[in-house]
Write a structure and sequence with these properties.
alpha/beta; 3-stranded antiparallel β-sheet
């Protein structure tokens, strides 16, 4: 079962550490089956409960996975390895549409904003014991959240010190991780969109959490799929309001109402809404965390918005609103670790957010998405992309599609980066495309998918 390797240890922590070391050093390859509990306990001369505790530790750390009667096996990919770490080799001269980056031409000039932040820093440096949230960023975030009907609890404290239920983190994923750590325990199930954000799908096993896939269409998570996940006992639900990655889905009013009704039947489930695309879309924001009457849908909830897509990925700032207890836990844990997000960054983001023209940005991305989808449709290729930077093209064979497009001069992202149980596809990032490129790209996609007889389908 393990070849020449033998597991060692007397305590659960020792056994788990030995297995994790062997996995890291390649002595236990991906997919290797571990001995049954009682068998290993007999070999080591320990109680089976000790081995069970060791395996539980390994599952929580994302080293192994357990499939009922099929036993426990080393994960096919370590939980600490990001899907993006396995990069597509893009040859010189190939247009890279695989990374999901915004259009550099639409990102703002940072010089004036950073100078403004530096001047504020010179007259009011932030020292230990100061507020974690910059007052200027707090005011902008509070106004935007209030305009969208987000219920902001008052948490006490001095005016301008973040008294509203708002916190700041180093980007969307940092915010989500902090919320998970504040409210969940290893082994908890989390309902996630499928296909969905690869970084989130990587984060879950690294934290010992179980991803429960929920299929999506252009309007977001399917109600029946979410109901199934809730009935399975998930402890949290993560939904992308707009610019869903990778499909471009955006919640519609009717879908949002259906999902709120489902969530309200499970008030103890944590709801996280990711509105990272807030400044690059022209779809109306649909809030799940509260209804038109302002009442919260679930007891514990959070809504986050980051600067990455509209201002640039290197501005690692996200603001989040949440219920009072969740905010207290997130802030408390942050103080014990990072302490706070640099106020130089916060002030820079505040200056840029207050001046950006979101309508121009959203219109530019819409024209590219709609243009490419229309060109593909004219060639018999179905694609999705209501909002954001990407479109999703269903295919039959991702590897063949990616390889075929590379030969034609285009690099796209294989859908395996984003999928759990959903059918295969490829993600095409439209942000760097010029209008004149759309027909050629569409023709190359269609040619890659074309079969004998002139029909077009996923290869």
């Amino acid at each position: 079962m393990l070849g020449d390797y033998r597991i060692h240890g007397r305590r659960a922590t020792e056994i788990a550490a030995d297995v994790e070391r062997a996995v890291g050093e390649g002595e236990l390859p991906p997919g290797a089956a571990l001995p049954p509990l009682r068998e290993l306990a007999g070999e080591l001369g320990v109680n089976p409960n000790t081995v069970a505790a060791a395996y539980r530790l390994l599952r929580d750390r994302g080293v192994i996975e357990t499939a009922g009667r099929r036993g426990s096996r080393v994960r096919a990919r370590p939980a600490h390895t990001s899907r993006d770490a396995v990069r597509l080799d893009v040859p010189e001269g190939v247009r890279d549409l695989s990374q999901g980056n915004p259009d550099l031409a639409l990102l703002p000039d940072l010089e004036q904003a950073t100078r403004q932040a530096a001047r504020a820093h010179a007259t009011g440096q932030v020292l230990y014991g100061g507020p974690a949230l910059d007052p200027g960023l707090r005011a902008l975030a509070a106004a935007a959240f209030a305009a969208d009907g987000v219920p902001l609890p008052r948490l006490g404290g001095a005016p301008g010190a973040g008294a509203e239920g708002i916190a700041v983190a180093s980007g969307s994923l940092d915010a989500i991780e902090r919320i998970f750590l504040a409210r969940l325990r290893p082994g908890d199930g989390v309902a996630v969109e499928d296909p969905g954000w690869g970084s989130l799908l990587d984060l879950l096993p690294a934290l010992g959490l179980k991803a429960v896939p929920v299929a999506v269409d252009d309007d977001g998570p399917l109600p029946g799929e979410l109901a199934r996940a809730l009935d399975q006992g998930v402890r949290a639900v993560v939904v992308t309001n707009r610019a869903q990655n990778p499909t471009g889905a955006a919640l519609g009013a009717e879908r949002a109402s259906e999902l709120r009704a489902l969530l309200s039947l499970h008030p103890d489930v944590l709801l996280i809404e990711d509105d990272h695309g807030h400044a690059i879309v022209d779809q109306h924001f649909q809030l799940l965390g509260a209804g038109p009457d302002g009442r919260a849908t679930t007891t514990h909830w959070a809504l986050l918005r980051s600067a990455a897509k509209s201002l640039g990925p290197d501005l690692r700032v996200a603001v989040l609103a949440a219920d009072g207890d969740t905010l207290d836990r997130v802030r408390g844990r942050q103080r014990l670790g990072a302490g706070w997000v640099s106020h130089l960054l916060q002030r820079t983001v505040a200056a840029l957010w207050s001046a950006e023209d979101t309508a121009v940005i959203a219109a530019s991305y819409r024209s590219r998405r709609d243009g490419l989808i229309a060109e593909l449709a004219a060639r018999g290729v179905a694609a999705r992309g209501r909002s954001g930077l990407n479109i999703w093209v269903p295919v039959t064979d991702e590897t063949a599609t990616v390889a075929g497009l590379l030969q034609r001069g285009w690099a796209v992202a294989p859908g395996s980066r984003f999928r759990l149980d959903s059918p295969p596809g490829v993600r095409v990032t439209v942000s760097s495309l010029a209008p004149a490129e759309l027909p050629g790209l569409a023709e190359d996609i269609a040619s890659t998918l074309r079969v004998r007889g002139g029909d077009v389908r996923g290869v």
